[in-house]
Write the structure tokens for this entry.
Amino acid sequence: MAEVVEVHKDWSGSFPSGKKITVVFVIGGPGSGKGTQCAKIVSHFGFTHLSAGDLLREEVKSDTEQGTMIKNLMHEGKLVPSEIIVRLLLKAMLASGNDKFLIDGFPRNEENREAYEKIIKIEPEFVLLIDCSREEMERRILHRNQGRDDDNMETIRRRFEVFQQSTLPVIQHYEKMGKLRRVDGDRQPDMVFEDVKAVFAQLNTQANQGSNVSRAQTNPFKRWFLDLFCSCFDVADRRN
Ligand SMILES: Nc1ncnc2c1ncn2[C@@H]1O[C@H](COP(=O)(O)OP(=O)(O)O)[C@@H](O)[C@H]1O
Ligand SMILES: Nc1ccn([C@H]2C[C@H](O)[C@@H](COP(=O)(O)OP(=O)(O)O)O2)c(=O)n1
């Protein structure tokens, strides 16, 4: 069930206290189809999609010292310092006004995860892993045609290494916590989305069950009606 977030006072901008915030991380190798599936999730489930890579590419455009540093790291297929990406995520979350976030391409390593836990502190509901073979990912990236500076053979090789060495420990961490939801990403986008939909549908069911219970417990009219119903039909009260 979605968690109620206690906002910490040291935030420079913060979610309204007590607001329920839902976070889902989407991870997978480069070209596994994270962005493609996120677009579908947004239109079906009303999440705000935050792509870590897109936020960094926006920052590169800013033509600052930090932008140049990010550009060079991305060109080499390396990861950007965690504090930078976590601050960009927090800023985008606060600016969106939404309460449901799909964070794509994050966390990429244990340092990313720890910085998120320290700064944003909102436990993800689950982590969607798009599992795809290396040959398929390579083929897709080479056909992506988005003019990305890092979609060249040498940088792609480095990004695969980073995924193996740095992202696998993050996947194992969430697997141990029972939070990992793995889908087979080697198939056509609509087929992959069938499995993704099933994962998100569970989230909706849990949230609805949670909210029905709490509304029944707090709405005086509903409570009075349920009491009346139970007494008329001699039903044992199992609401609590
Ligand atoms: N299931 C799929 N089958 C075939 N091509 C795909 C699939 N998912 C994505 N693509 C294509 O592969 C490329 C990489 O997908 P993208 O969503 O950008 O991946 P990521 O965000 O994981 O890097 C894009 O050109 C996209 O259109
Ligand atoms: N948490 C993150 C996410 C992306 N980056 C950098 C490093 C990645 O190679 C690039 C591109 O990431 P993006 O998610 O857009 O693309 P791919 O999944 O590699 O296709 O951004 C990062 O440093 N830290």
User: Anything to note?
Assistant: Residues 22-233 form a domain with the Rossmann fold fold (CATH 3.40.50.300). Strands lie at 22-28, 48-51, 100-104, 126-131, 180-184. Residues 1-12, 211-223, 233-240 have pLDDT under 50 and may be disordered.
